[in-house]
Amino acid sequence: MKKIYCFIFVLIVLAGGSASCNFLDIVPDEMPTEEDAFKDARAAERYLYSCYSFIPQNRHSTQSIDLFTADEIVTAFEHELFANFAKGNYSASNPILTDWNTLFEGIRQCYLLLDNVNSVPGLSDVQKKEYASEATFIIAYIHFILLRSYGPVMIIPSTPDVNMPIADYPARSTYDECVNWIAAKFDEAISMGLAKRHTGTYYGRATAVAAKAIKARMLLYAASPLFNGGKTSYTDFDADNLSTEYARFTNTDGTQLISTTYDPAKWQKAADAALDAINQAVADGYALYDSGTATDDMPYPDDPVQRKLRMTIIDKNSKEILWADTRQEDTYGLQNKSAPRGASISWNGIAPTLTMLETFYTENGLPIDEDPDYNYIDRYKYSVYDKLPVTGTDDPGKDQVTLNLNQKREPRFDAWIAYHNSYYEYNRDGKGLIKVRFKRDDVNGKGTRTDNYSPTGYLTKKGQHPLSSQGGSSGNVTQKYPWSLVRLAELYLNYAEALIEVGGQSNLDLAVSYIDKVRTRAGIDPLKTAWAKVPGAVLNQDKLRKIVRQERSIELFLENHRFWDVRRWLLGSKYFNVKAKGLNVDGTSNDAFFQVVEVNFQRRFEVPQYLMPLPIGDLQKNTKLVQNPGY
Fold first, then answer.
1. Which of 620, 612, 621 is nearest to 69 (CA)?
2. How many CA within 13 A on the CB side of residue 174?
3. In whole angstroms, what is the distance from residue 626 CA to residue 620 CA?
4. CA trace torsion 212, 216, 218, 221 (10° rounding)
5. What are phi and psi of 479, to 5 degrees?
6. Greatest alpha-carbon span in the chain
7. Which residue(s) pair with 362 in the sheet?
8. Residue 478: which residues within 8 A CB-CB, separation 6 or more?
9. Please, are residues 549 and 318 in contact by the beta-carbon 8 Å criterion?
10. Is the entire prediction scored with pTM above 0.85?
11. pLDDT of residue 405
12. Which H/E stretch holds residue 476?
């Protein structure tokens, strides 16, 4: 446990974002003493940036815990570290991707800045205020990351003493105590003077709206079944029940760490926090992304709705993104791994699952199994692709069929999903548009490879910049952009979900209006218009709960949310304990390829292992720590 409190000054090499988003490009000097770290304004600035470096990189290709590990996609890279989470191979003795100790080191790094910032020579009072507020934000955010992964954690209220006696090592605080403390810490950071915005080379630093947005997300999680009683307060036969486990989940002194009592007031707190963050965002000039005009340098996607959907998280000037990570995508990141195979280097291997593909709505904005105009029964048959061909992209003699499932779907499906005989907007050979095909012997097919292929016969286009190409021996993508950590559409859906759970017709109506903001941008009908097509449909609380979850799963696809959402809804057994399904990528004919098959990759989720395991070595060093349920 003492490792947690060791003061480590490290050379943290951070790969920065684009030229306009590169405050993390600054590499801290090796600082053997606190005096060196705060000897002048420049050293203090570099030290502040080193505090940010302890924040996990959400889009890291192999080390992100939540990007490729839910049921949204499967990849051809099952040998990589991240895949162990989907396989259920993590344990207390081998937690795989634990950031437990690193995060506590980051907390101490921030407290040391708070202890020393006011004495830095040459640092203006304005800068001292900014640095202190940002360090306080990072302390709150790191505690939130710990809380999200591990549940109740140790609250660190001040600079830890490296000489602390073992007897004084802290125990875990209760979950509710952690939530209240972190929320107050975010509020403190705001009151200390977090900036309204950061632009230019400072883009990506903490702001007041980011603090309110993350606080709102945390309170939404706290109100959800995983942490609000350990079971659902409504009928859901698919949901797991952890209340018995939580009843015996106690500290060594008998303190219960997660309450088994459902508290409906938590939903109101979550709603209030989401609305507060929304109001702050709107006041600060943030808005849903809405830029769909094609340009000469980027003609595709030419459909204006699909274009703005594709660019929402990619456009460096997006007003929707409330906070972003400016560290560069690595060589084996999402864009390279998603790029369609061709003569140049590409990995061709981020494949949406049929679970995800069936989640997207029809063109009428309805679930595929409830839309009376959609041929649900024949969705796994194939027919001629009804999209008009684009000159120069179609090969004469190639058939133009695709699965019925791929047709008559909402704009987000075509904006983010590449399917057999569809077009992938990608700047290969200056064409800007590529026809993709996934039968075994097709250019994007599996061939004889054991990786670098789509395991389901689909690729994702989300997160792939249409102007990206691959160059050089490393195959690095040419278009870089910051990674969205929180955006306005999430806040709208957070608010809607909380309102639905609070209940009451006025809240349900308000929730519908916020869901409709997201749907309108997505190019589909408002809820009441869409559901008027379904005989007998009633948008009551139970129905809207399903709707907002489906809307969230679609809109936030492949943005680090699904891994946590399924857990907080207590649906791990339903979604994470089954193998993915896709098309038969070993098929060489249409009849063989358009067959639904199980992807033979291990998938395991064991109840009650909803929280990540604490490293066993730390439990041995600090006997006050108790392990999470199931380990």
1. 612
2. 15
3. 10
4. -170
5. -110, 120
6. 77
7. 409
8. 427, 467, 468, 469, 470, 471
9. no
10. yes
11. 98
12. strand 476-477
Helix (H, G, I), strand (E, B) or coil at 583: strand
Q: How far apart are CA 284 and CA 276, in angstroms?
A: 12
Per the listing, tokens 């705001």 go with: 190
C-alpha closest to that of 609 among 630, 624, 626: 630
Burial of 207 (0-12, 13-18, 19+ CB in 10 A): buried
CA dihedral 560, 561, 562, 565 (to 10 degrees): 150
Q: What pLDDT, on a 0 to 100 scale, did the predictor assign at position 292?
A: 84
Residue with tokens 């160059």: 471
Report d(CA 438, CA 45) in Å as an integer: 50
Residue 189 to residue 182: CA distance in whole angstroms: 11
The two tokens of residue 427 are: 């700047």
pLDDT in tens, 513-538: 999 999 999 999 999 999 999 999 99
Type and span of the H or E element at 73: strand 73-75
Summarised one tens digit per residue, pLDDT across range 427-467 is 877 778 999 999 999 999 999 999 999 999 999 999 999 99
**Which DSSP string do the residues of 465-507 spell out, in sequence order?**
-TT--EETTTTEES---PEEEEEHHHHHHHHHHHHHHH-SHHH
Find tokens 């977090």 and name the residue: 194
Would you tell me the crossing angle of helices 208-223 and 488-502 to the nearest 10 degrees? Answer: 40
Distance CA 292, CA 45 (A): 38
Q: Identify the structural domains of the chain with CATH numbers, from first to last.
A: 1-56+99-206 (1.25.40.890)
Output the pLDDT for position 398. 75
State how far the alpha carbon of 631 is from the alpha carbons of 144, 225, 238, in Å.
Answer: 22, 21, 23
Cβ neighbours of residue 548 closer than 8 Å, sequence gap 6 or more: 493, 496, 497, 500, 511, 515
Work out the end-to-end distance of the chain between its first and last CA atoms, rounded to an integer number of angstroms: 19
Q: How many CB atoms lie under 10 A from the CB of residue 109?
A: 27
Q: Which residues contact 264 (CB under 8 A, 6 or more apart)?
A: 233, 501, 502
- DSSP code of residue 55: S
Residues facing residue 351 across a β-bridge: 74
| CA pair distance 115, 161, nearest whole angstrom | 13
What phi and psi values does residue 598 have, to the nearest 5 degrees? -85, 130
Query: φ and ψ at 520, to 5 degrees?
Result: -60, -45
